[in-house]
Amino acid sequence: MTVQKSYVDVKEYITRISKKNGWKLNTDQESLNDLIQGLQDNFNRLGYYNCPCRDSQEDPQLDRDIICPCRYAEPDIKEYGYCYCTLYSRIDYDQNQSMRMIPERRPPIA
Ligand code: SF4
What we know:
It is a single chain. The chain has one domain (7-90): Ferredoxin Thioredoxin Reductase (Alpha-Beta Complex), CATH 3.90.460.10. Helices cover 37% and strands 5% of the residues. The protein contains three helices and two strands; from the N terminus they run H-E-H-H-E. The protein has a two-stranded antiparallel ribbon with strand order 1-2. Bound molecules: iron/sulfur cluster. Iron/sulfur cluster (SF4) binds next to loops.
């Protein structure tokens, strides 16, 4: 059985990832809480951090490109300032600007 992750575990994990990559976390507490909750639910259901705003195929091999931080986070943050879910953003990104939905970079699933 997979070890269950707490809210605090997930927060520590994403904080570590954001520091390592020179990003920052969403500064809106409500959005951040929802994203953490989504990651926590996914981990405790699937055993890995499936992206909280994309559907899982419930197979770590098929989902490997969308395990957080996903394969698309870096190019999205470079191009738009933040990732698809708005969890991570560029360190200098001013969140007072609107965080509009960005195009999905993941190719459609066949
Ligand atoms: S879009 Fe953001 S939250 Fe979703 S997996 Fe990628 S980095 Fe994580």
